[in-house]
Every structure is written in structure tokens, then in C-alpha cells.
Design a protein that fits this description.
The protein is an alpha/beta fold and about 325 residues long. It has two domains: about 5-150 and about 255-325, Alpha/Beta hydrolase fold, catalytic domain (Rossmann fold); about 150-250, no CATH class. The chain has eleven helices and nine strands. The chain has helices at about 95-110, 120-130, 150-155, 170-175, 190-195, 200-220, 225-230, 235-250, 260-265, 285-295, 315-325, and strands spanning about 5, 25-30, 35-40, 45-50, 70-75, 115-120, 135-145, 275-280, 300-305. Helix 6 packs antiparallel against helix 7 (about 225-230) and helix 6 packs across helix 8. The longest helix has 18 residues, at about 200-220. The radius of gyration is 19 Å and the shape is globular.
Length: about 325
Amino acid sequence: MSIAAAAPAPALRLLHAPLEPFKTHRFQVDAIHNIFVEECGDPNGAPVCITHGGPGGGISPSYRQFFPPSVRMVLIDQRGAGHSTPAACLVDNTTQHLIADMELVRKALGIDRWVVFGGSWGSTISLAYAQAHPDRVKGLVLRGIFTLRREELLWFYQSGPSGGAAFIFPDAWEAFLAPIPVVERHDLMSAYYRRLTNENNKEEQLRCAKAWSTWEMTTSKLIVDPELVAKGEDPEFALKFARIEAHYFVHGGFFAQDGELIKNAGRLAHIPISIVQGRYDLVCPMTTAWDLHKALPHSKLRVVHAGHSASEPAILSALVEECEQFAKL
């Protein structure tokens, strides 16, 4: 095992030029869900599947710019997220459904094998997909590793004597606590989930969605970004993001056992894997990336001086470099 040194500041890479999709699709994956998919780059290039974070975050236009435009990028808005409909729908919305959707898209687009890219929750679904279909994955480029182990969730959503993200952001944590009565604060994820799924009190639902999303946006960068915080307060984004995240988190990601993705990491021993991790990531602390790297000693782990967000310069630069290497697979 080894950790590759971060690139020095003067050599930091930038995103590739902006791209527009050359084709968009809508797939009716079941009786309820219609998912949105876009293709960018070269239709004849090596295929890459790009997954988004959250869950519930949706695809951002900047996701098209990590790989060189010579590849065929397939970007999927997961169930209930982004342009997929119905928005924020939690029915038949599980990790297993998302994996099946990725396979449906792969087959529908005539792709045999692809590189899979994702950060945060995107790393979760990328790992889960690769473990379910290892013969369909040529490589993994991952960022801000998140595996939904109970200890990871408690670090971010439940302050206690052993600490957590709240110890670093006590001011933002107080705002996160505010919508929940003291008697329910022993289990904040469940308390939020009850309110986010209560259709009889829309005012409280939106207030909780904004508080949930703002907490994550506030802690996602090494230096707090007001624009990112404002995104968390946007009602349309917040409802999708908070509802779907809480849904997945209270159900442990719908995994059969806690820590499943790391326990089953051996299934990926033949797949090239690159991991980019912010040393000061408060949302998905480095311990998870380290545990995954130990379970996959052939993987490449790049630790950079940054927080969680893919848009932070050191993370962005490392991702662009890794994506260019994996574009050659």
C-alpha cells in the first residue's frame, strides 16, 4: 500500500472545457420512476459512467469536465434526483434499484464495459455496482469515500462524547439541531426522516430539508463557501437532497450488513482503482478511504490538502489527472 503525494500548488490542473450533451435519454425503469441520462464527449470514445453524490444530489454540468472529451461520458440522474421523475420519490428507491438502473442504461446504450466515476455517495454506488457486476467495470475513479457504515453516519449526524463533525462546526451544528425537539435529539436521522416524509406538514418538511442540506453544504469545503451554503437553502434542491439522503441513511443504505462494501472489497481485486481523498474531509472522514485502501492494497490512494468537495482545487486537480489516466483504459 502507498499514498501518492499531492501535486504541488503551481501544477494544479483545471477542469476540461465545458461540454454540452450530444444526446439525452429518458428511461422508464419501472411503473413509477423515469430516469434522466445524458451522454457527452465522443460517441465513439471509451465509455465512462459518472455517478452523483447525495444520494439525491443530481448531476452537475461540471461533472462533464473531469474526463477528456475524447471519452464517451454517460451521466445518470438517480431515482428522484436531478431531472429524474417523480422528484424526491422514495418508493422503490434503494441501492439495489440504482444498481439495476445502471445496468439497464449500460445495456440500452450498447456498452460492454465501462469505467465508473463517483465521489461521496457516488463512491458508494460505484463500489456497490462494481461489486455486483465486476465483469462490467474496467476501472474505478473514486473521491471522498463513503460506505454508510454506522460509525460514518454517526460521525456526521450524531454528536456525542467521542466527538464528530459537530465538534469542528458547533455553530452550524446548533442550526442543524434547531428544528428537532430536545427529547428526539438522541436519534437525529430518524427525527429528521419523520419530518421529511410527513406530507401533512409542508412547512416543517421544508424547514427540515433546508436545515439538513445547509448542514452538509456548510461542512463540505475546507473554507466555507457561501454559494454552496445558499444551494442548501434552495427549496427545490433541499427537498430532493434531504428526503433521499435521510431515506437511505435511516435504512443503512439498504445493505445486508454494516460495512458490506469494505468486507466485500476483495471482489474488486482485479479492477484498477484510484481514490482521491481530502485529508480534512469532515463529511466523509479519511478513515473510510484508508480502510478501503487497506482492503484493496492494489488501489492508488491520493491524499490531498482539502475538505470534501470535488470542486476544491487540490481534489479537482487530482481527479482530472486520474481521469485522464483511466480514459486510456
